[in-house]
């Protein structure tokens, strides 16, 4: 059974490693059963570690995100401790706003490129003509340099 899980996809192998680390694989073949098994002791927890202050102390960046997302009007209104869900919702809202801005900028850039392309086409300006003009300039410069080198060589003699 375990051999087939190891040979499977990586996701199965990852869950196998997670199950071994959590101690689920030591319980035998009752992995999917949610009932407690007799003879298997519950994991020991240290006393006092189960209690945690509900909340998260937001950083300055988190406070800016909470204000920008519209959750609070000013940074002074933000409580000392905020829930992680509130901060996560503000991050998600800003993520969506950033996506909307990027979509709008992409559409504007497409329209600008379309207009400039049409103007260039009306002037009969395209990459082929530009490339041919550039190569003609290079040939002229090379010819001038060649003539200058020949004249310099004749003058030296």
How do you describe this structure in short?
The chain has helices at 2-7, 10-22, 60-68, 84-122, 127-156.
Describe the structure.
- This protein folds into three domains: 1-26, no CATH class; 60-125; 133-157.
- By secondary structure, the protein is mainly alpha-helical.
- The protein starts with a helix and ends with a helix.
- The model has no long low-confidence stretch (mean pLDDT 79).
- The chain is elongated.
- It is built from five helices and no strands.
Properties at a glance:
mainly alpha, 5 helices, 157 residues, 62% helix
Give the H and E element order.
HHHHH
Overall number of domains: 3
Shape: elongated
SS content category: mainly alpha
Give the helix level as a range of percent: 55-70%
Mean model confidence by pLDDT: 79
Strand content: under 5%
What's the total helix number? Answer: 5
Keywords: Membrane, Transmembrane, Transmembrane helix
Family: Belongs to the UPF0389 family.
Pfam family, one: DUF1075
Membrane topology: Single-pass membrane protein
Task: Map the helices and strands.
Layout: H1 2-7, H2 10-22, H3 60-68, H4 84-122, H5 127-156
Helix pairs in contact: 3-4
InterPro entries: DUF1075
GO cellular component, one term: membrane
Family: Belongs to the UPF0389 family.
